[in-house]
Specification:
By secondary structure, the chain is an alpha/beta fold. 43% of the residues lie in helices and 14% in strands. The protein contains five helices and four strands; from the N terminus they run αβαβααββα. It has a four-stranded parallel beta sheet with strand order 2-1-3-4. β1 (24-29), α2 and β2 form a beta-alpha-beta unit. α2 crosses α5 (127-144). The longest helix has 18 residues, at 127-144.
Length: 146
């Protein structure tokens, strides 16, 4: 193999061996159907509007709800989100491992570099206040991510 062919082979190998950038932002709340869904919905809108290379997903730290609670679905519908068919699921270790960012809202998960948003009001007590606090956090997170 000549010198030029070897150089091209090494350059090609270097390009293909780079790790794929992490693009998932994981939002976790206790039951995966309220706070994390609100956060993922607003984050995905911001990411799309700004051309950010991220997609948010919502998950439950505990046993997930069967569906998004009606008041949460209604609140999000007023802002143009349709989450009626979203099926909450429990957080997955592989998703956590591959996430660019992990945010917990009023719960805990075992992972490195977790952002905790424990100042968000309970949805069952103050849905509007909870959504407003989540939107503020989401805006700040979107500014922090590269």
């Amino acid at each position: 193999m000549n010198k030029h062919a070897l150089l091209l082979l090494l350059l090609f190998a270097g390009c293909t061996m780079r790790p794929k950038p992490k693009s998932t932002v994981l939002f976790v709340c206790p039951y995966g159907g309220a706070k994390s869904v609100i956060a993922a919905s607003y984050f995905n809108r911001i990411a799309q509007e700004r051309g950010m290379p991220y997609t948010a997903v919502a998950a439950a730290a505990e046993e997930p709800y069967e569906a998004v609670p009606g008041p949460v679905a209604e609140l999000l519908a007023r802002d143009g989100f349709d989450v009626r068919t979203f099926k909450p699921r429990r957080v997955d270790a592989q998703v956590m491992k591959n996430a660019a960012a992990i945010v917990t809202i009023d719960c805990k998960v075992e992972a490195d570099d977790v952002q905790r948003w424990d100042d968000v009001p309970k949805v069952s007590v103050d849905l509007e206040g909870s959504a407003a606090a989540i939107r503020r956090h989401v805006e700040a997170l979107a500014e922090e991510l590269p």
